[in-house]
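_Full entry_
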Amino acid sequence: MKPGRQALLGVDVGGTFTDAVLVFKGAIFRAKVPTTRDQSEGVLLSARRLLEQAGAAAADIAYFAHGMTTATNALLERKGARTAAVSTRGFKDLLEIGRQNRPRLYDLCPQRPEPLVPAGLRLTVDERVTPSGEERPLPAPELARLTDRLKELAPEAVAVCLLFSFLEPEHELLLGEALAQELPGVHVSLSSDILPQFREYERFSSTAVDAYLTPVVSKYLARLGAGVAAAGLPAPAIMQSSGGALPLEKAAAGAAPLLLSGPAAGVVGAVFAAGRSRVDDLIAFDMGGTSTDVTLIQGGQAAVTSEREIGGFPVALPMVDIHTIGAGGGSIAWIDAGGALRVGPESAGADPGPACYGFGGDLPTVTDANLCLGYLGGRLGGKEGLALDADAAKRAVAALAVRLGLSVEEAALGIRRVANAGMVKALRVISVERGHDPRRFVLVAFGGAGPMHGADLAGELGISRVVLPDSCGVLSALGMVVGEQRRDWVRTVYKAAGWDETLLAAAFGQLEEKAAAELPGAALTRRADLRYQGQSHELTVAIDAPFEFGKISDDFEAAHEQAFGYRNDGQPVELVNVRLTAAVPLERPRLAGPVLPARKPPRPVRRPAFFGGEWLETEVWQRHELGDARLRSPAVIEEAEATTVVPPGWQAFVDEANNLWLEAAGDD
């Protein structure tokens, strides 16, 4: 942070809205604008609005963090760069062959996504490295042949993945140098840089994803960097999928670590907000306009996984363990061939958006249903926000209601319940299906649509407390400015037997040298991938220094028992990978406490809302006017970036951290 500057800016670009937060002199300023086609325009627009709100200047901003959907969208929509691939001779089609597992066991004609690199752009080189070292060298004529062929194919990016390069990267490094010299301007991703880890297909897939996305992301970040510089703002740090930030230049050099940029920031924000209310066991529920992300957090720490498929492609890089479904405020309701009501995964997005936005959309969405039920008022985003067209919402829902033989209210309630069912299923996946009792956790609901559904979902799972954080509608943006700088490294050191503390210290020592060079002074977290002899997959276990073989083995067996319900005492434990994380926490902003009204809160307005099959007179409160009042249900609590629904059987209050709590009525 630059001396004399004190403001913190975070901007998160979602599929429907761009959320922004400015922390200045202990106060939080918020903005939510529709996501623009060129996402950098929405980023700069939201930043300008916040500076105007706060009476601040660009020169006041000490730190700027940014999360985006550019990489995710490019992968899901197949709009990445023209990419070539280079592999060892005989392994040309590895990207297409993949694994022989069948996610849908009884699907006789499974549809797999087409490889990111088509057959005509997959090349090989005549070289070979084995676990014992170089078997066949990579001669200069072979390099020349390859570069000449690539010049003819004219790719925008090249993914290089040679056999056993995670152990011996020399051949990949030679290729990288030759390609950089002969193909200037073409991005090259080397698997020994991206993922120096065994399992050829996952390593090649991660490298191909990085090559495919990096030209797109680097162009976007270049536009953003130029716009930010012209506006006098500091260069943004870019949020990674792991929940830590990277400098702009490093982010532009490799896109694969940025795939879950925004959702990861939401988890960071949820941990921060819940921690201010002394909650560290929570389920983060982030419902936006396009998707819903859920994460289970224990002890204030979200799990990080390196086993993830996005768009059908394995990406074995560190990511916050987030489960995502296509359910958001903009999710479109439809009737399938069997006459059943469905919601999503297709979304109306920001353009044209739900019918009630008035931008030309005419299909019913979850937002339209919530408006028809009386949960939303006439405007989205405060007094200066988007005016909602209730008549357009009713027309869209009515068209569906006629086909279902229901009233508009019944159809709207059905849309909401179907959407809720999908989100409850996602919450069960990360809790019940992994051996966790959700009743022990607090549900933290955020995102533009999350607070409208939080109490209903909690009730389905037996959760009695829901927290709606301060700035819940833009919490991912707040997470940007309360996170950390972070780097992650992994190295395969496979040892079936005979490994000890000395070998472990040597393996970590090599990674610690990289950490000291890239992020000096960082706190280090060590983990290892372990498995019983004969198993084919590993469990990741935290490793504390000084290393003790007996404790490491005991911790693995305890983790195995928790994950699978049994342990195999006496079976040799294999060491597969070592992992190192280096993190430097940002200075947490000092936020002022809630400003309580000096007098009794004003009387709320009332409007009818549809609960449990009937219209009920419902109090409508403004969140900033609640003070220390304890609200009974039913009620609706509005704020500029989100709306909270308090259904019958719940009550609400604001705590000293300015977080809004919903509690089941019997939980006094």
